[in-house]
Amino acid sequence: MKKIEAVIRPFKLEDVKIALVNAGIVGMTVSEVRGFGRQKGQVERYRGSEFTVEFLQKLKIEVVVADNKVEDVLKAIADAAKTGEIGDGKIFVSSIESVIRIRTGEIDDAAL
C-alpha cells in the first residue's frame, strides 16, 4: 500500500476529485495548507499599498491505495491538477505498513 499526498491549487480540487473517482478511489482526505516553493510568494495590492504574501494557500489531498493502483492515481492527479504554470504543486508517495478500519477491524487491503 502507498500513501499519496498531493499539494494542489485550490481551484483544481473538483477536477482532481472527479479524476480520482474515475480512477476508482472512493475516499480521500483534503486539508487546507499554506506554503511556498519556486513561486516564493506573490505581491498583492490592497488600497494602494503593496505587500508580499509569502505563504500561498494550497490544498493537500491524501489517499491510500493498493500498490497496483499507484500509477493510475498519480497520472489522474497530475493530469487534473496541471495548469502548466509555476505553483501547480507536488505529489509525494510513501509506503504504508498497515491500515485498520476502526468500525469493522478489517486490516490492510480489506480496510481500504
Descriptive overview:
The protein is an alpha+beta fold. It has a single domain, classed as 2-Layer Sandwich (Alpha-Beta Plaits), CATH 3.30.70. The strands form 2 sheets. The chain has a 4-stranded antiparallel beta sheet with strand order 2-5-1-6, covered by helices on one side. A two-stranded antiparallel ribbon has the order 3-4. The protein is elongated, with a radius of gyration of 17 Å.
Could you write a compact summary of the structure shown?
With 112 residues, the chain is an alpha+beta fold. It has a single domain, classed as Alpha-Beta Plaits. It has 2 helices and 6 strands, in the order βαββββαβ.
Draw up the topology in text:
Layout: E1 2-8, H1 13-22, E2 29-35, E3 42-46, E4 49-53, E5 56-65, H2 70-81, E6 89-95
Antiparallel strand pairs: 1-5, 1-6, 2-5, 3-4
Strand-pairing-aware structural class: alpha+beta
User: Which architecture would the CATH scheme give at its second level?
Assistant: 2-Layer Sandwich
Helix and strand string, N-terminal first? EHEEEEHE
* DSSP summary: helix tally: 2
Residue share in β-strands: 35-45%
Terminal residue distance: 9 Å
CATH C-level name: Alpha Beta
Q: What is the approximate shape?
A: elongated
Helix content: 10-25%
**Widest sheet, order of strands:** 2-5-1-6
How many discrete domains? 1
* Largest beta-sheet characterization: 4 strands, antiparallel
How many β-strand stretches?
Answer: 6
CATH topology: Alpha-Beta Plaits
Q: Summarize model confidence as the mean pLDDT.
A: 90
